[in-house]
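Side project, low priority. Logging it here so it doesn't get lost.
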Amino acid sequence: MQSVTSFCRHAAVVSALSLSAVLPAHAAEDVSLRISWLMNVQNAGYVMALEKGFYEDAGINLEIFPGGPNINSTAMVASGQNTFGTNDVSSILFGNAQGMDLVIVGACFQKNPAGVLSLAKTGIKEPKDLEGKTLAYTEGGPWTYTQAMLNAAGVDMDKVNKVVMAGNEVLMTGQVDAKTSFVVNEPVALQVQGYETATLVPADYGVNAYAETIFTTADFAAANADLIKGFIAATAKGWDYAFSHQEEAVAAVLARNPELNPEQQKRQLALEENFVKSADTAKNGLCSVETAKVAESYEILKTYGGLEGDLDIPAMVKTEFNVGQ
């Protein structure tokens, strides 16, 4: 006959197994990401990490929200409406100068695509070639880094005819010789219309700045180190997958924004690989961030971008979440 002790042990095991069958597994963390602009292949890494289950594998239930002309990702994260955001490093620096308490936990675009765009027929191949030419610009973004590039290259700014104008049409109609631009998307828009283009990228002339950082609040970073580590690792895996499966990545992005031009998105994603991968990412992993590079951007923005106030750069750059750490 089965002993009372044996029977009790058997009943306990059955009860535990029955209970485990009805209890849910450890719930994934609900996380939101506010991208800096409308959905396009600039966000292919996040999209593929979501599509392929990399965030789910890290215990993260991610929802991606678009940005836009009236949506500021820094404000959305600082106010607690979103967990993470993406934006140019300058936006985080300006945000903190205005009282936000944001920290940078990753940087997926290692090389900033802000630069100068021209039609190939103008013969502008290096910064000095802009002397005697007409350069269109608008304040902010590309103009800030372009000024730093022109200064580093020894360009006489008095010999550059500078006009405030925007849009690729000013190049197409010959109103100007060159314009400030984001060189991973605007040249492609011209190329699909049959125009040959040339670009100048400040990073190629020693002006370093991250184009897209991943950020959150200081309080969230302090309390959720494991989650952030998993988020960055999954995102890095997503970018690696996107570049290895570009047609699939473009299709996934187009499914989220059907208004995009498929050919333009295809060409843009191919160009982005050179901006996402770097010597630093070879060492520290994709989407890694370095304090010195953010500090360099800080100095550029103080000199050319109108940034005021003192910021503690080491405190706002979290290198411990780099995949290679």
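Brief comment: Residues 1-25 have pLDDT under 50 and may be disordered.
Revisit when time allows.
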